[in-house]
Design a protein that fits this description.
Oligomer: heterodimer
Largest sheet of chain A: 6 strands, mixed
Shape of chain B: globular
Structural class of chain B: mainly alpha
Distance between the termini of chain B: 42 Å
Largest sheet of chain B: none
Number of strands of chain A: 24
CATH superfamily of the largest domain in chain A: P-loop containing nucleotide triphosphate hydrolases
Shape of chain A: globular
CATH topology of the largest domain in chain A: Rossmann fold
Helix content of chain A: 25-40%
Number of strands of chain B: 0
Number of helices of chain A: 18
CATH class of the largest domain in chain A: Alpha Beta
Radius of gyration of chain B: 25 Å
Strand order of the largest sheet of chain A: 6-9-10-3-11-12
Number of domains of chain A: 2
Helix content of chain B: over 70%
Strand content of chain A: 25-35%
CATH architecture of the largest domain in chain B: Orthogonal Bundle
Order of helices and strands of chain B: HHHHHHHHHHHHHHHHHH
Number of domains of chain B: 2
Chain lengths: 525, 406
């Protein structure tokens, strides 16, 4: 193959490329009992650059970053910070050496102010009390200098996702970090917020700070990074220049194979509706509507996408369809039947498949073997059940079939689910739900936290199922996934479907506008 | 191999706990100025003559049967993540009602026994059911309500015993219900012992032993093999996942409490039907609380509970000989207490080890090539060769795909 991306891209030759290295990792190997998580890692990050590390989930990115952040020690290899070899015994050592980590999941106390969250754990004291004045001065100075736009006295619970992330960044900067590790920082942001984040990163760069940016969103990586290192199967497979490498080439470096795209174009939509919601309203315990008079129709062979910033009612909509929340008003029809009052089990038996948003909370029994996870949600039907009894043999055999057909990599059906990587767990769930050949599939974030390989497998499965006439409700935060897979795309904002757009024509920016409420005009319904 | 290892880990916790408890108890015995080794010798000495030994074993078994049932009752709820602390009250109230009903009716032999059993189970279930209903309708923690109901049950049982169900004459020092008629007596199993060529013991081996074994098997099958049991266990592992899978969590809470209470209702029957014939102020107390310890030690596994019940019964029997040897019988209580404490810690350690070993085996598989046929084989490479083999294959794959691209 002539277009081998690794060969063409050595080190970017930009102006900053001449700056000295802020972080160097040489020959880092980290073994866990029975597995080598990182092997011969070579990474060199120049000062004042945004250096992206890309790789599939499970490729070893997090292990590597934990090594760099002092959460565990490498078995082999050396770490150099500003040219000096260092040994970290704990994150405290890493922080002292000027390395800070912004975690993917925010670690903020909602009922504290920005100031309190930032100083938490390293509070300036005056006479045994929190010295708010000096803390405020420092935070305002940091906010000013890096353009974070934080107001120290705001309550965190009143902040949006983007602001919360900036609080996290401020926390790290407050502790004098010169090297910032950002773990999947864009996973929770809408496009506009991503642009803001990239603006902040530019500020950090300008001030001479170094950013290590972990991601698998390749377009963003190409936009923001000065250099890219690709990790595959625990080792660094090469560097790429973001200006000359396409997202597709990067992705192929990550998986070591060519990739399919999520696009589907030939419509398979039939006339018969499988799911109809009419005026569905779900109220919170306090009586506030979480979803407000939602009308929705899903026809056979149709993928109906629901876009929206998380927390705008998508989860409640899924719960309402699955029977996990009772309706305050409205009706849910499955085919011709009014299922509004049905229990979850009856709905599942009637042919509703469910890929839950949080597979650990709703989709799996982590402490149980895979074959018991095969039974979960299908307790009443073969091959999982035989009369009132569990069909152990049948469930085991069918688990092996799912593992084979859906490429679930595990030692066997008796392995505990907790031992599988996220992608393999998700493939098991998808395989399990598909095996019951449902009429309607509720897929909430079906590719969240899974690697590129599993993602493309899941996309293909959804497309096949759609082709066979399954109706699919796709709730996702991944706009490319929504645009690529949906036949009809609705935008949910504050519990209402505020816009219906044509996925063939809409841009992520337009969608983002609807999702944040900036745009209000409804598209062609 | 894997199953062997997981079984080993499952046994490791309790075994370690018992060992640690023995060591701590030895230290305590030494501190009060007695010889721990002599205490141990007294405890393990079942007697010299064969008849004495058989007698000791019968005493242990008779004590183990109610302990086993108590452990079972606790574990049924616990498998679903419910702490039924109310087993004590459930069996007390069930026994007093069953004793009164049994004494009040006249039925032919087996039917009479069956009636007493059914009444006891029903009363136990109802009493535990209150806990379940309170939980699903009012959100009351089952720990709180079942403890509270213990006090109410003990008070109610005393009232029933001294009031409407009183059978013993006025002024008697021990108040009891009217004794069961002979048709409600469950014959002992000493004949079976004789058939095995064992010496005739002084005490009758409870016929209820057979009922307990049957109940144990039934519970094991119910929990491990049936759809209901799967729902129950799934709810115990993850209530949210079970709900999403279609389990009606509220109904499960009530059903499970009913089941737990029904088993709890049986606890007093070995003695009632086999020996005491009546419920009274002297009726064995505290079995419900011991059941929590037994369930804990047995790791909520039916076989484990049986072993734990035997161990506790063995320790209880030793109380008397220890007193004869001028060693305080509270040594037994100390050992039981330390076992419970140690088992909580040991279970946690064993759980973490099991989790780590599971994660390790998963990591080995992820490192393996995408060859589901091979990796789906449960009899794959043993753990000894796994890491090396997996590793070698992995580097091979990386190399080959790089070659393919070059």
């Amino acid at each position: 193959m002539a277009q081998a991306p690794a060969a063409g891209a050595e080190q970017p030759d930009g102006g900053a490329a001449r700056s000295p290295y802020a972080v160097e990792l040489h020959g880092i190997t980290k073994r866990f009992p029975g597995v080598v998580a990182n092997k011969d890692i070579e990474l060199a990050v120049r000062r004042g650059q945004v250096h992206a590390i890309v790789g599939e989930n499970g490729a070893g990115k997090s292990t590597l970053m934990k090594t760099l952040y002092g959460e565990h020690r490498p078995d082999e290899g050396t770490i150099l910070v500003d040219g000096r070899p260092v040994q970290f015994r704990s994150p405290a050592d890493a922080i002292a050496a000027g390395i800070g980590m912004v975690h993917q999941h925010f670690m903020l106390a909602d009922n504290f102010t920005v100031l309190e969250n930032v100083v938490l754990g390293s509070e300036p004291r005056k006479g045994g009390r929190l010295d708010r004045d000096s803390a405020r001065r420092r935070i305002e100075e940091i906010s000013e200098r890096y353009g974070l736009g934080l107001r120290p006295d705001d309550l965190v619970e009143d902040l949006g996702v983007g602001d919360r992330q900036r609080v996290e960044i401020a926390k790290v900067l407050y502790r004098n970090a010169r090297i910032l590790i950002l773990d999947e920082p864009t996973a929770v942001l809408v496009p506009q917020e991503v642009d803001e984040l990239f603006g902040n990163l530019a500020e950090l760069k300008r001030e001479g700070l170094t950013v290590i940016f972990i991601s698998h969103k390749l377009d963003e990586v190409r936009k923001v990074a000065d250099a890219i290192t690709v990790i595959r199967r625990g080792t660094t497979v090469g560097e790429a220049d973001p200006r000359t490498t396409t997202a597709k080439q990067l992705a192929e470096m990550m998986v070591g194979a060519e990739l399919p795209t999520p696009e589907l174009r030939s419509s398979t939509v039939r006339e018969t509706p499988v799911l109809r919601l009419a005026g569905v309203t779900v109220a919170s315990d306090a009586g506030r509507p979480l979803i407000d008079t939602v009308d929705l129709t899903v026809r056979e062979g149709e993928v109906v996408g629901i876009a929206g910033v998380e927390g705008n009612g998508q989860a409640e909509l899924v719960d309402a369809v699955m029977g996990l929340r009772s309706l305050a008003a409205g009706t849910v029809w499955l085919g011709d039947e009014d299922i509004s009052g049905w229990a979850t089990r009856a709905r599942r038996e009637a042919g509703v498949g469910f890929i839950p948003e949080d597979r650990h909370r709703q989709g799996m029994l982590l402490g149980a073997p895979l074959w018991e996870n095969r039974i979960l949600g299908h307790q009443t039907r073969p091959p999982a059940a035989k009369g009132p009894f569990i069909d152990r043999k049948g469930a085991r055999a069918d688990t092996e079939r799912i593992m084979r057909e859906y490429d679930v990599r595990a030692p066997g059906p008796d392995t505990l689910a907790v031992a599988l990587s996220g992608g393999n767990q998700q493939k098991l769930i998808v395989g399990r739900e598909m095996s019951a050949t449902p009429r309607l599939l509720i897929a909430a974030h079906p590719t969240r936290g899974v690697d590129v390989g599993a993602q493309s497998v899941i996309w293909e499965l959804l497309k096949d199922a759609r082709g066979e006439g399954m109706g699919i409700v796709l709730v996702s935060a991944d706009l490319d996934e929504l645009i690529g897979l949906s036949d009809t795309l609705h935008v949910m904002f504050r519990g209402r479907l505020v816009a219906t757009v044509d996925p063939r024509q809409v841009t992520p920016e337009e969608l983002g506008g609807y999702m944040t409420g900036a745009r209000t005009a409804a598209g062609a319904a | 191999m894997n199953r062997l290892r997981s079984t080993g880990l499952a046994l490791l916790g309790p075994a370690l706990a018992v060992l640690v408890a023995l060591v701590i108890s030895a230290v305590v015995i030494a501190l009060i100025g007695e010889n721990p080794l002599r205490a141990l010798q007294v405890m393990t000495d079942l007697g010299d003559a064969p008849s004495q030994q058989v007698q000791s074993i019968v005493v242990i078994l008779n004590r183990a049967v109610p302990l086993f049932l108590a452990g079972l009752a606790v574990s049924v709820a616990f498998r679903m993540g419910l702490f039924n602390i109310g087993v004590e009250g459930q069996y007390r109230i069930a026994t007093v009602v069953a004793a009164a009903v049994g004494a009040a009716v006249a039925l032919p032999g087996p039917l009479h026994v069956l009636l007493v059993i059914v009444v006891a189970m029903a009363v136990g279930a109802l009493w535990a059911g209150i806990v379940g209903v309170l939980k699903v309708t009012r959100g009351v923690s089952e720990v709180i309500s079942s403890i509270m109901l213990n006090f109410i049950a003990l008070g109610l049982a005393s009232y029933l015993l001294t009031g409407p169900f009183r059978g013993s004459p006025e002024g008697a020092s021990i108040i009891t219900t009217t004794p069961l008629p002979e048709s409600a007596w469950l014959p002992g199993l000493n004949g079976v012992l004789g058939a095995f060529g064992l010496a005739e013991p002084r005490t009758e081996l409870f016929g209820f032993l057979i009922v307990a074994v049957v109940v144990g098997i039934a519970i094991a099958v119910l929990i491990q093999r049936t759809r209901f049991g799967f729902d129950l266990r799934a709810t115990g592992i993850s209530a949210s996942a079970a709900t999403a899978s279609g389990v009606d969590a509220r109904r499960m809470v009530v059903t499970t409490m009913l089941l737990s209470g029904a088993v709890a209702g049986l606890i007093g029957l070995p003695d009632l039907l086999g020996d005491a014939r009546a419920f009274g102020t002297e009726f064995t107390a505290g079995l419900g609380f011991l059941g929590i310890a037994v369930a804990l030690l047995g790791r909520n596994n039916v076989l484990g509970i049986a072993l734990a019940a035997l161990l506790f019964a063995f320790l209880d029997r030793a109380a008397l000989p220890l007193q004869f040897a001028d060693i305080p019988a509270s040594v037994v209580t100390i050992i039981q207490g330390t076992i419970v404490l140690a088992v909580v810690i040991a279970n946690e350690i064993a759980r973490r080890l099991a989790l780590r070993s599971a994660e390790r085996s998963g990591a080995e598989a992820t490192g393996a090539p995408p060859d589901p046929g091979g990796s789906a084989d449960p009899g794959g490479p043993g753990p000894g060769t796994g890491p090396d083999g997996g590793h070698r294959v992995r580097t091979g794959v990386t190399g080959s795909s790089e070659e393919a691209r070059a």
